[in-house]
UniProtKB/TrEMBL annotation:
Organism of derivation: Parachaetomium inaequale
Protein name: L-sorbosone dehydrogenase
Range of residues in the leader sequence: 1-23
A Pfam family reported for this protein in Swiss-Prot or TrEMBL: TrAA12
Keywords, ordered alphabetically: Signal
Keyword flag Ribosomal protein: no
The Pyrroloquinoline quinone-dependent pyranose dehydrogenase beta-propeller domain, residue ranges: 35-421
SUPFAM superfamilies per UniProt: Soluble quinoprotein glucose dehydrogenase
Lineage: Eukaryota, Fungi, Dikarya, Ascomycota, Pezizomycotina
Amino acid sequence: MGHLSTLAGVVALTSMFVPEAAAQSCSGVTGRFQPKMGSGYKSSVLATGLRNPRHIVVDSAGNLLVAEGGTQGVRRLVLQEQGDIVCVQSNTQIASGSTNHGIALSADGKTLFTSNLASVTAYSYDAATGQVGQGKQIVTGMSFQGTHPTRAIATSKWSPDTILVARGSQSNVDTSTTQQSAARSMIKSFSISQGMQTAYNYNTGGEVLAWGLRNIVGMSEDPAFGGFWSVENQMDDIKLNGRDIHNDNPAERLSYHGVLNATENRYKGLNYGYPSCVPAWDPANVGVSGLLVGGLFKPDGVPDVAADECASNRMTGRLHFHAHTAPLDIKFNKNSTAAYIAFHGSWNRNPADGYRVMRVDFANGQPVHAVTSKTAQVPVMENGNISGCPNNCFRPVGLDFDQKGRLFVSSDTSGEIYVIYGA
């Protein structure tokens, strides 16, 4: 990897930017950067000084739980209203040890899940007091191999006993993932109750929801329609017929995986092409006749497939994004009229791209834009100047909404949490 509910009064949000779009600041909290906000949005800095904050989740009492990368564990930020904004009342560590990336809560809010590069751990959790119980591993066997240590996790309100766990490839082109038995570059589903009794081994247990997905780093369930979605970081440094086309290809991808508790989910178990087939962002640069945005093609140096295999027998994404912008999380507003995506930003293109939060509009459970659209993203929060990225800018990773429709955003490189408010 290159690695709000829509609020009342926001009727038409365009791609224009508001010069002065910062809300008032929390006392004693000063952010390092001044984000550029899309029309109708304001932001404030909620917290600074965190250590590599990755994914985040708001609990049933409105507190913010933050998975800090490495061996930092989970922090609980108790929030309080301060005028027109929200600020931190207290900040404590509630779970120690390696958390790496992923964090989720059960549908009833009483179980906290975290992931690291090897396993998924469950803790009993009391949102009122912040007390957690003894951790129990419910999924194991994902020992780190290669370049993608993140293990995105997500739970479901439509299927409350289900947890999804994504495991990425072990290299840029992981040839062994042409076989499901590799148990990489895929999303698997597991029964929480069964995992609490006897831990699953990721390699042999659970059910494959989707595979052929290079590196899924964010997943989310549509609250109104129940559909499950993922965002994917695609291949780096690709060539076609010896020609370097990596700067604008392949596309990053938003994929649909159906409703988890549906009697028949026709999306379950589908293959999305990796490592042999990748989606186009700039078809003209690829040079394959008839190729459209999101269409799959076979680059150099990947496992061979039949000539029509990419076009005919692999699943395409539902929307596609600029190459190497690294989407790391996706969250829906309360009424599912929009999904918000955190683009961590590129390392594998020149000039750099990403480093922003964007909105994709939805209707009836699907994006309003066509699969081939290149204009589906509406700016929400961006760096004013990305020349200092990745180390001297905010770099969004995790997203979550509270019940008031405020969108929280973590920035790992700057150690900050932002809040985005509607107009």
